[in-house]
Batch of 4 targets.
Target 1
Amino acid sequence: MGALEQLIVTLREGVEAALIIAIALAYLAKIGRSDLNRVVYAALAAAVGVSVAGAIVLSAVGGNTDRYEGWLMLIAAVFVFTMVWWMRRTARFLKRDIETRLSRLQNGGAVGLFLFIFFMVLREGVETVLMLTAITLDTAALWAWLGGIVGLLLAAGFAVAFVRG
């Protein structure tokens, strides 16, 4: 697989994370709590850092075997299946559900907000790491990185558009 597959995976997962961040930031602005934006960004950075660390560990532990690739694909499929199942139940009310949880966490302070955003974004990061690790076992490293970086940059562009729009 080449850079296109990497781009698609990182773009899809990055846009999902961007939606979470955009909804959180828009809600905090709506309730006049923009002072908590730094907590959202800190949770985002922490989730990305843990995802990168996970990628490093997976690449160090794994080998270029079909068995390893197969297990990673199965685990990634479980993550995607549970996300599709959850989205099927909540997609129509996703924004409202996230805002409801944020309103409950607002009184709990920054720690609750941090943990909520961290785990929501970490899930996307783990899915990305699992899928990229599984599909890059036989891909030229330069193309894999290029596709992944372009996908993340496009997702970041969407994130900025979501927050502003």
Target 2
Amino acid sequence: MTLDLYFARRYLKAFGLVFGAFLGFLLLLEMVEQVRRFDTSDLGLSEALELALLAAPETLYRILPLIVLLSTLVLCLGLARSSELVIARAAGRSGLTSLAGPVVTVAVLGALAVAGLNPIVAATSLRYETAAARYAGAEASVLSVSREGLWMRQGGVGGQTVIRADRASRDGTRLYGLTFIAFDAAGAPVSRIEAREAVLVPGAWDVTDAKEWRLTGSPNPEAEAVSHASLRLPSDLTIDRIRDSFATPSAVPIWQLGAFISQLEAAGFSARQHRVWLQMELALPFFLVAMMLIGAGFTMRHARFGRTGQMVVMAIGLGFALYFLRNFAQVLGESGQIAPALAAWSPPVAGILASLGLLLHLEDG
């Protein structure tokens, strides 16, 4: 038990060093990228640092498997050079037994990353997108999904229009059970339209079975309400703008992702991408363990055996191959070629089994 705690502390120290190095490098890289991207007098050094701090957590979270792999290489190479692994084997502990402490440590780090770092990344990525849109002068998201249904907004010459619908088609271009509320430039409501259905066509909404209330200049809007069998309302929305307004799965905290999937499907949209992401997040601790075992399998040899550089390169290459396999499986899952659970869990299971086979072969022949 004491030796397991010692190896676990050594791994935490290696992980902290690698994580800190990547954090510092990414902050510098992000600051340069923000200055290059937003070539404006409004973006000073403090603003660039703020954007870099908001963008760095997402990048760190994405490369967490690489950080775990490199931390494992640092740990195992250090133990091999100091002959501590040889002493542990002489005391009757196999290589697999010596890895118990680091494996548990990686699993705990993965669980903490999913439970704690994931919501932080979701919050910082949303704040980054908002701040980046402000500096770039771009438009904010035009669509959101809630328990009340689907909400959109669109601009116009006279002001903004808010659209609420009970549900929609998968691409968001056909709405059902909807309400249009138009506002003037000062933000006061001008009119309200309730309709059974609306279809987005280039430059307008084709509304069917609608009723319109004028909210200005009339003491009794209901008495002067007008019914329309069909109505065309100008719109600046496009299919691309609606599609780009969906929150990416990584922008939704893991604790809220299940409810968001339910709301998305209730609104009529496909939530396959979000389901795959949820399974990928749940499988992340196991994937980190697989990366850790891959690194250990190639570098637990004693340094006097030589070829250390080749082993490090092979470990990094196999780690990148497993990372690519994970991303490829995610693409297959999002496209519907394989089930979300299979896309998320097959790479870590394959990586753990393959690395365990390698370790058993090297340790026991």
Target 3
Amino acid sequence: MKINFSNITENLAIVNADREAVVNVERAARYTFEDYHSLTNQIANFLQYELKLTNDDHYVCILENDSLSLMSPMTAFKGPGCICYTNVRDSVAEHSWQIDTVEPKAVFIESGMLADYFEFLSKRKIQIVVMDEIPSAFKTHEHIYAFWDLVAQASSD
């Protein structure tokens, strides 16, 4: 039996449109079921159309829990590729080993961690998605994206 998670979140959005689905206390963000359905669709769409991930690709999340809530199983089930979660508290060396093992096409990372990971990820030609604003020292580099810019450009269908 196949399960279509987009249909599941769409049905939840229809039935519970204005009720809260996700509360992100750290960033003072609240998402209704309707908002969360649209947002997870936008993320799934930019994974496919902007980052060019396919079902055979992997992507890694090195994220705090508040950002990780946006890359939840609902997002992962809707979009292409295989999501690989890490423990944000692991060392750079541990994450490096994990990334070399998984060989992801993209890494989602917190802005404050980029300096420690940039060289390693760039050498491997991995696309980098920074969850907040891209630090000014890295804005001119290729293959670095701001998460919310990608969201804003993506369809919510």
Target 4
Amino acid sequence: FLPNSPTLMNAGKEDFSMSACFVLPVEDSMVGIFEAVKQTALIHKMGGGTGFDFSRLRSEGSIVKTTSGIASGPCSFIRVFDTATDVTKQGGTRRGANMGILRIDHPDIEKFINLKKQEGVLPNFNLSIAFTDNFMKAVSTNSEFPLIFNGEVKKVVKARELWDKFIENSWRNGEPSGLFIDRINQDNFTPHVGVIEATNPCGEQPLLPYEACVLGSVNLAKHIKDQGVDFHSLENTVRVGVRMLDNIIDKQFYPLPEIEKMHKANRKIGLGVMGWADMLLLLGIKYDSEEALALAERVMGFVTNTAVDESTRLALKK
């Protein structure tokens, strides 16, 4: 079992976080935007990666009442975050990484879809579109779809045409990707605390604003015995891994008090696996076979159930 890179790099250092994943809110004001930029720099300094939902930012060309100026829109402000990441080296060891998300019903979504059409743009960002159930229904029925900000319809588009633009760009270079945000929130374990809007940079960990997550991986290739999966040792590793990740939540330093409060309250951990292909190789199982699929279901079902059981034990204890 190995924890995430920030734990490997920062354990034993004073004033350093050991979590890898963070989500920060971006509010629709200059103060809010640049406060998020500052918070991002503090997280990247410690080796963490950040995710943002830029959907709160008003669309390009909107009037800013306080200054009578014109808003530049979320697509321009993403560049500010990208530049800040570029000049902030993570803990002196690696570059920062970000996830930038925009809802499919935001008025600037078409510009967002094309943001990374040219290679080399926003090198420190992965981009994802937050697809809603309503949009997917409009695609399936070839209906029109409203683009809305603050409850006001700014534009109406053909849902399928917008979907095709997304597919074209995603096919070209993988950007943007897609998150089915309503489906994600169906599995939000703390809906009374908030709505999930974004994920970490690699997209595997949905988080609430100011939530963090510490990750770790079980090496499946080290759990083989007598030409089969050693479920006894796998159970032990998973249980120890869960306890270790949970301990890190209390042990680590936090870059922001808001993050410390959220992480200690919700205690998100991400326990995953590595070495799956190696396990299949050692067992003589072809990667794309039905046998491999059946084993994957069995192994990950076991890992999941064991991790949940150990988390339940920790909840009773703590």
